[in-house]
Here is the input.
Amino acid sequence: MIDFKEKIAGIIAKTIPDADPEMVRDIVEVPQDQKMGDYAFPCFRLAKIFRKAPQMIAADIAEGIKGDPLFEKVEQVNAYVNMFLSKEQIIRPTLTAALKGDRFGTDTSGEGRTIVIDFSSPNIAKPFHIGHIRSTVIGNSIYKIYSALGYNVVRTNHLGDYGTQFGKMICAYRHWGNDDDVNRDPIRTLLSYYTRFHEEAEKDPSLDEEARKTFYDLEHGGEDELRLWQWFTDVSLKEFNRVYDLLDIDFDAYDGESMYSDMMQQHIDALRDKGLLIESQGANVVMLDQFDLPPALITKSDGTTLYCTRDIATAVYRKEHYDFYKNIYVVASQQNLYFKQLWKVLELMGFEWAEDCVHVPFGMVSLEEGTMSTRKGRVVFLEDVLLQAIEKTKIIIAEKNPDADQDMIDSVARDVGVGAVVFNELSNNRIKDYVFKWDQVLNFDGETGPYVQYTHARCSSVLRKAGEETVRAAESVDDLDLKYLTSDSAYTLIKLINAYPQVIHDAADRYEPSIVTRHIIDVAQAYNKFYHDEHILTDNEDEKNAKIALTIAARNTVRNGLALLGVKAPERM
Ligand code: ARG
Here is the structure.
């Protein structure tokens, strides 16, 4: 792909030899309004440096670059140089790149670097609820985005399979448990025990003591505790995997918190040797007040460890095991403070790579009734949301395609129903809190996943109608007559396609899949406008070939963009 900014900066730099080329590149911008050109160069910064009126500098630059074949038109407007690229210069390279199929938008900039990404990470014996969808789909998309840029990305699921809550769960099971119920509907049943535990413990605080002792036994190899813990883990994982299958999400490792329980002691010792571990009310903490942070709790008074202790061992393990370039945690913004403490403790322990650890936070999901609460049993299960979306889609597809066979309906309904939920999740800036509303998730109009998927199916249908021979002719980009793609609607679409590879980089830099989502909505809208404004399958062969080339380019962009979000692109809908 041609880097136009770089090219333009080079041309401008020749007219102002005294200016720093780096800075010139920095100043080149894309104006909001297309009337101001494809690129613009504001001269305020140069005016300060050269002590000259910005309008005069702009006029000189405009004069100096006018003859370059890259431009169709160059204008000086006040302090700005507005540049209109010659359309040919954009169209041909854009089509050449976009016709590379799956490879369009990918590059090798991350080759040789490993990124570890910790995402989803639900808690055993707790519901996999709509709150978890955020970490799961944001993490999966970040994995796909970095993979597209050539990084080696390791997906790890840091299952919450350890900690005092297991003491509570085991106690609750011992008091009120029933094996048949657990086997039949594990998580709802275990959740009901857990909820009951909290209710009863309010009346009878000795239960809390019993739970603490039970977790202590679990951590110290108690046979029956281990057996129950293993059982709860197995049945929970079975449920989680059903959701991962629906979403088509895989992990390279399911290294839950328990895996690190054997590795913790050496780090606790290291903290003590470094004089960082302070005794406070029987517990051991690392004081962080000089960094304006609350103390990090490392061991409790009874010697049992905490979430943080296991995370220290986890980070060290990941460095030793994967030698990561970046170690990313996709976890709710409620843990912002926690991660600051964790990085600080790692830094104090002398690990320079602490600065390569990144917390990617996201906002909270609440229900219309209020915040979700596992303890109170107020949750919406992710699996229910996905299954309902699929059911609703089946009805819509059957209505639209009265003669479609059931297999087609089932498979498309799955892609579109699940896609709608995932796409909706990735539409907004991840940090925003939002209220979960059934009708919004199941809304297929407007800027939604089904709309973008539908655009993809529309492109596919145009290509089927055009026939293989025309598609093949369209693929020889060098032979195309590009004048047929210079209308406003065609050119707007081409510029959006041209911007797609950079969009992936921006999304990676900011760990923000919604940048991809927004962009492919724009591409889909631009294609639909082009489709309505113009006659694509005309009798004029040259015109048809050019427009089919643009249709392939649009389809590839939409399809590849959806793939980065973890959303499928069916050929027909
Ligand atoms: N299980 C945790 C939760 O549900 C998230 C774990 C995130 N990863 C980590 N290494 N701390 O809140």
